[in-house]
Specification:
With about 110 residues, the protein is α+β, with helices and mostly antiparallel strands. The protein has one domain: Hypothetical protein apc22750. Chain B (Translation Initiation Factor IF3, 2-Layer Sandwich), CATH 3.30.110. It contains two helices and four strands. The protein has a four-stranded mixed β-sheet with strand order 1-3-4-2. The longest helix is centred in the middle third of the chain and has 24 residues, at about 50-70.
């Protein structure tokens, strides 16, 4: 499955647009991670616990996006984007979304 942030995929042409597709993940950091992150925020610098949480959550959202696109019969997703937000003080939501398409090599 090709996933691109661009409208066109180099060396391919879009033969069919299937529709919007997304992958949603909501994760919570455990108590230990929140305590470590809170202590790090006092001294400043990167909060690695949250960086890892966001990276893992984005990867998982892309995996779900790809699975949903495949279920729709697509072989590519174009214009892929992320959106994220917080739910409460301990949860992070990430959505990967784009347009499911069928492409073929030129």
């Amino acid at each position: 499955m090709i996933v691109a942030t661009t409208e066109q995929i180099a060396g391919h042409r879009t033969v069919r647009t299937i529709g919007q597709v997304f992958g949603v993940v909501v994760r919570s950091r455990g108590l230990g991670g929140n305590i470590a992150a809170g202590l790090r925020s006092i001294i400043g610098g990167e909060i690695r616990e949250y960086t890892h949480l966001v990276e893992d959550t984005r990867r998982h959202a892309i995996d779900r996006l790809v699975a949903n696109a495949a279920t729709m019969g697509a072989n590519a997703v174009v214009m892929m984007r992320f959106d994220s937000g917080s739910i409460g003080q301990t949860m992070n939501e990430v959505v990967a979304y784009g347009t499911a398409v069928i492409v073929e090599p030129l």
